[in-house]
Design brief:
The complex is a heterotrimer of chains A (243), B (368) and C (373). Chain A is of the alpha/beta class. In chain A, the strands form 2 sheets. In chain A, strands 6-7-8-3-9-10 form a 6-stranded mixed beta sheet, sandwiched between helices. In chain B, helix 7 runs antiparallel to helix 9, helix 7 packs antiparallel against helix 13 and helix 13 runs antiparallel to helix 14. Chain B is of the alpha/beta class. In chain B, helix 3 links the parallel strand 1 and strand 2. A 4-stranded mixed beta sheet of chain B has the order 2-1-3-4, with helices on both faces. Chain B folds into 2 domains: 238 residues, no CATH class; 103 residues, abc type-2 transporter like domain (abc type-2 transporter like fold, 3-Layer(aba) Sandwich). Chain C has a 4-stranded mixed beta sheet, with helices on both faces. In chain C, helix 1 crosses helix 9 and helix 7 runs antiparallel to helix 9. Chain C has 14 helices and 5 strands. The longest helix of chain C is centred in the middle third of the chain and has 32 residues. Chain C has 2 domains: 232 residues, no CATH class; 107 residues, abc type-2 transporter like fold, CATH 3.40.1710. The chains are: A alpha/beta (243), B alpha/beta (368), C alpha/beta (373). Chains B and C meet through helix 2, helix 4, strand 4, helix 6 and strand 5 of B and helix 2, strand 4, helix 6, strand 5 and helix 7 of C.
Chain lengths: 243, 368, 373
């Protein structure tokens, strides 16, 4: 396995007043891997992700993303990452093509690049007929797939996905993960949070957060062995209950 | 019934937890009352004027002093040439220039005839008329005094005036009832229209509509907290205007409360009506602003007297619930009259309310 | 530069796609100019009057006729009974009552100075004051006519009199509408710019796209310019549209330079847009943004002296008015449009709004953060 470190986090902490949302977490993510970031609701996942993508400033600790420091070089980080949030992020009153042009344009893609990128995107997703449809009229599954394609349109070295498959049917989820694999295969590091434990199995390595701390971190197989569990579901329940 | 209570509780939490909006909603009537009570005066005083005295004699000085001690005028400075007047007006420094002709005093005493020019900046014609009226009154007064010293009277019939309901002619007496109408409209109609539209925009409405709760329950649940909020606001205005401006309610409090609830119902149904039409909160806002708040402020008789408006606007004004509620409010608060004098107005308002409720129920059904 | 352009294009697309919003943007100026201009007048033209004539003589009827021959008064009822007329007041059928005492004519001819009484509904204090002025003028002129009759009888009186000549500059026809139009154009520009810009960014917060924008390498200045520019354009367009409507309906053309009008409006809009941005950054929902915007707008408009002169306000209120950018903008519009003032003649308010624009923009940019704490 390629062991080049692309995200390095040391004792990263986030406090909101007296409440410690993220409590001194440390971990590393290697280039090109699919890194699963699991945890119950309120465990601190979203806060941790927001610090890594420079939406929240950390209270203390160190973090380096794609070779840049989250405290000092947040704008440089932003150039090198993609992000897809749990809230829907496309403009519903713009067409698919216009969304591509807008987000791609913001990342500084030239007109020519935008054209090439959209041709590839429409061909790969096979949605040529949706090109000039308003996003609002598309089914949710398609919206999510398009949102992912747009999140990686500028070839970021890491893409952060915050519960990307919430509310999507199993077939679309499957297709979605195929897209993730493909991106990983092309060398993009994937940092993904999810609620679905079957999805955790697809990851190269998984970290499980409980109460703001990382309870464990390993490959799915190793985690199952270590906790004497048959499935990731069981691992998760054992860790979350503090067993 | 239990569903309804739950629903009201949910809406109540929405309102209470949004502290910023709540502060604005409570602060707004207070701030407006203070502005209208203390800052906005339709009466004019301390108008800044210039004096161009080409004569500079005792009489012109006497008149000047009389003007400046009246409280209506304040001197910017003496003007020394015709061209200076133009500059003063254009740079907005004075509102009026009083010109005494050459040898003013001599002509007045010897020939019994002298002239004064009152040059007004009539870009504001209203102010120009008022100031010119004040100046004329002061000069006429001076003439009268001067003549009566020489035992010549020029008045026979005298008059006496009694200003009813508001002897000190305070403009705040007119603004308080108007303000109540405006705030009720704002909280009841604007707030509800926005809040229902928001549920639509966010997709929550669909969830609620597929639930076993009946649509009327949803709507009633949504609007009831606003009834309390508006009523609270009306009470705040009335209590404050009693302590700050000595405005006491001459009529029956119970009657006032009942009429207020009637109008709140009208305003709420207007709010619901707007929310059935508008797709987004921004649209609901714009429709409420242009369709409800602006007319309430301008056409209901709140600030501007209806009798002076052109006929089409008077007709429009009569179609507004706010106009009728304002007459009722003034009647109860300032005149202290009861239902026997306000029957027509109450019936019209009642009819309008029923109409609004029916239309909004119908519209609401069509949409779903 | 290209990034700014991309944001601007996106904003315009969203604005023009909103099929309900566009007509509103066009309708507001027309409605405001027609309704506001015609409604917003303190001129008193028609006053309903009841007369209680206890004398019922030639002279009392002569006095009543004097009232009716002016265009101000409309006779509602002549009664012999004070109670009936009070009933009319309570029912809002009449605004004032003139009471002519018995022996009015007799006293008049014996030079006993009869006294008439007015009862005026003073709910609207200023209207009551003006009505009384009108009524008093009629009494005065009635006196004059009687005096001149007496002159014929008695020896001529040698009165010293001052001839007062009224001159009304800039608006000799005393057209109140003309005065209101610049102010209403000012309101128009402010409403549109403040609400649209104030609700815009908050809307992206509500639907969640703001987060997506914040993780892009977009620069703060690019975002702010890209977001505000479209509304700046719309504001300027509204002004142009409003001016055209005012010209078509009321035939009002600016006396002074239109360049000056638009130039000052372009600066003033920056203050409003920065205010909208500030509201947007400090609120979480459109509803909040809207209420705060509405609150400030009402205070700004009322304190600006648009409807009532600033000079007549108490001292503290004059200070508030001074810090109100709308005061200065309306002042500029009125001076330039009605009096034809040039840049030098509006330099005080002009410099003031430039300073406010810089201050507000700095505050709004400083307050806007891509990263939350």
């Amino acid at each position: 396995m390629n062991k080049e470190i692309i995200i390095k986090v040391e004792n990263l902490t986030k406090k909101f007043g007296n409440f410690v949302a993220v409590d001194s977490i440390s971990f590393e993510v290697y280039k090109g891997e699919i890194f699963g970031f699991l945890g119950a609701n309120g465990a601190g996942k979203t806060t941790a992700i927001k610090m890594l993508i420079a939406l929240h400033s950390p209270s203390s600790g160190k973090a380096n993303v794609a070779g840049f420091d989250v405290f000092k070089e947040s704008e440089k980080i932003k150039k090198n990452i993609g992000y897809m949030s749990q809230k829907f992020s496309l403009y519903e009153d713009l067409t698919v093509q216009e969304n591509i042009n807008f987000y791609g344009g913001i990342y500084g893609l030239s007109k020519k690049e935008l054209k090439e990128k959209s041709e590839i995107l429409f061909k790969e997703l096979g949605i040529e007929e949706f090109r000039n449809e308003m996003v609002v009229s598309l089914p949710l599954g398609w919206k999510q797939k398009i949102a992912f394609s747009i999140a990686v349109i500028h070839n970021p070295s890491i893409v952060f996905l915050d519960e990307p498959t919430g509310g999507v049917d199993p077939i679309t989820r499957r297709q979605f993960w195929e897209m993730i694999y493909k991106a990983a295969h092309n060398g993009t590091t994937i940092f993904v949070t999810t609620h679905y434990m079957d999805e955790a199995e697809y990851c190269d390595r998984v970290s499980i957060m409980v109460d703001g701390k990382i309870a464990d971190l390993d490959t799915p197989q190793m985690l199952k062995n270590k906790h004497n569990a048959k499935s990731m579901d069981e691992v998760f329940i054992k860790l979350a209950r503090g067993l | 019934m239990k569903q309804l209570l739950n629903f009201i509780r949910k809406e109540y939490y929405h309102i209470i937890r949004d502290v910023r909006t709540l502060i604005v909603l409570i602060l707004m009537p207070v701030a407006q009352l203070l502005i209208f009570g203390y800052a906005i005066r339709t009466e004019v005083n301390d108008a800044i004027i210039g004096i161009y005295d080409k004569s500079r004699d005792n009489i012109s000085n006497d008149i000047t002093n009389k003007m400046l001690s009246s409280g209506y005028f304040k001197l910017q400075g003496y003007v020394n040439s015709d061209s200076e007047i133009e500059t003063l007006f254009k740079s907005g420094k004075v509102k009026q220039v009083i010109v005494f002709e050459e040898n003013f005093g001599k002509k007045f005493e010897k020939e019994g005839k002298a002239s004064i020019q009152l040059i007004n900046d009539a870009s504001n014609p209203n102010l120009a008329t008022i100031l010119s009226g004040y100046a004329t009154a002061i000069i006429t007064d001076y003439m009268k005094d001067y003549n009566s010293k020489n035992n010549i009277t020029n008045t026979i019939i005298t008059s006496e005036v009694k200003m009813l309901f508001n002897p000190l002619l305070k403009s705040v007496f007119m603004f308080v009832p108007g303000l109540i109408v405006l705030i009720l409209m704002l909280v009841s109609a604007l707030m509800t229209s926005i809040s229902i539209t928001k549920e639509k925009e966010m997709g929550n409405m669909e969830i609620l509509l597929v639930s076993p709760i009946k649509p009327p329950v949803i709507i009633i649940g949504k609007v009831i907290p606003y009834v309390f909020l508006s009523f609270f606001n009306a009470v705040v205005i009335i209590v404050l205007s009693y302590y700050l401006f000595d405005i006491t309610i001459k009529g029956s409090l119970l009657f006032l409360a009942l009429e207020t609830i009637l109008f709140i119902t009208t305003a709420l149904s207007l709010g619901v009506l707007i929310s059935t039409i508008a797709k987004t909160q921004q649209i609901a806002l714009m429709v409420s602003l242009v369709g409800l708040l602006m007319p309430t402020m301008l056409l209901s008789g709140f600030i501007y007297p209806i009798e002076n408006m052109p006929f089409p606007l008077q007709t429009l004004s009569k179609a507004l619930p706010a106009t009728w509620f304002l007459i009722i409010l003034k009647g109860i608060i300032l005149k202290g009259v009861g239902i026997e004098y306000l029957l027509k107005e109450t019936l019209i308002l009642f009819g309008m309310t029923i109409f609004c409720i029916l239309v909004s129920i119908k519209k609401f059904k069509i949409r779903l | 530069m290209r990034i700014i352009l991309i944001i601007i294009i996106k904003e315009f697309k969203q604005i023009f796609r909103n099929k309900q919003m566009l007509p509103i943007i066009f309708a507001i100026p027309i409605v405001q100019l027609i309704v506001l201009v015609n409604a917003a007048t303190f001129e008193i033209k028609k006053i309903n009057i009841d007369v209680v004539d206890y004398d019922n003589s030639t002279s009392s009827r002569g006095l009543i006729n004097n009232f009716l021959s002016t265009n101000y008064f409309i006779l509602n009822n002549v009664t012999k009974n004070y109670e009936n007329s009070m009933e009319d007041i309570n029912k809002n059928n009449t605004k004032m009552i003139l009471i002519i005492p018995s022996n009015f004519e007799k006293d008049l001819f014996r030079s006993q100075s009869p006294k008439v009484q007015f009862l005026i509904n003073a709910e609207d204090g200023s209207a009551a004051g003006i009505s009384y002025n009108y009524a008093n003028n009629i009494i005065l002129s009635y006196n004059q006519s009687i005096l001149s009759e007496l002159k014929v009888i008695n020896k001529p009186l040698s009165l010293s009199s001052i001839n007062i000549i009224d001159k009304y500059w800039y608006n000799p026809k005393m057209n109140y509408k003309q005065y209101m139009i610049p102010g209403i154009l000012g309101i128009l520009v402010s409403i549109i710019a403040l609400f649209l810009s104030g609700m815009n960014i908050v809307r992206e917060k509500e639907i969640g796209t703001i987060e997506q924008l914040n993780v892009t390498p977009i620069k703060k200045y690019q975002f702010i310019i890209g977001k505000l520019f479209p509304f700046w354009i719309i504001g300027m367009f509204e002004l142009a549209f409003g001016l055209t409507v005012a010209w078509l309906i009321y035939g009002l053309l600016a006396e002074g330079s239109l360049y000056l009008v638009f130039g000052m409006a372009s600066v003033y809009l920056l203050i409003i847009l920065a205010g909208g941005l500030l509201i947007s950054t400090m609120t979480d929902t459109q509803q909040q943004a809207l209420f705060i915007a509405f609150f400030f707008l009402v205070v700004l408009i009322l304190m600006s002296g648009l409807f009532t002169p600033v000079d007549s306000m108490p001292n503290w209120a004059q200070w508030v008015a001074f810090f109100d950018p709308f005061t200065h903008f309306v002042e500029i519009l009125r001076r330039v449009m009605l009096k034809g003032a040039n840049l030098n003649e509006i330099k005080e308010p002009a410099i003031t709004i430039i300073i406010y624009a810089i201050a507000m923009l700095s505050l709004a940019i400083w307050k806007y953060k891509k990263v939350s704490d």
